[in-house]
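Protein: ER membrane protein complex subunit 6
Species: Panagrolaimus superbus
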Amino acid sequence: MVEKKSTSIASAAAATTDKEKTNQPVYSEAAVRNNFSILENSRTCQAAASGIASGALGLTGAYGFIFYFIFVLVQAILWEYKAGFKWNTFFVNRSLSITHSIVGGLFTYVLFWVFIYGIVYVY
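Structure follows.
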């Protein structure tokens, strides 16, 4: 009896594993790479535009960095909206729309922020 129970538990576990495998989505590697490329290009353009805006507005210190992170969140919300809030059809993980290339975008942001601030308020 105990052996039969354990085999039925094992077969139930195997059936559950098979069900989990069939429920997992399949992603095209080329499509995911393309989505990351588009996200990185848009993050770079957004960082440049918000850096120009913050430099022209004269933001300094922590307010400038807060301005950047607000625009990162706004961009992530816009991407979610554009995707119809079905992020799992475009990305493997939901947080990637926020965290992907955030540091590279920050470098671009600081570059434009300091450059425009220097042109408008220093020179």
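Remarks: The longest helix spans residues 29-57.
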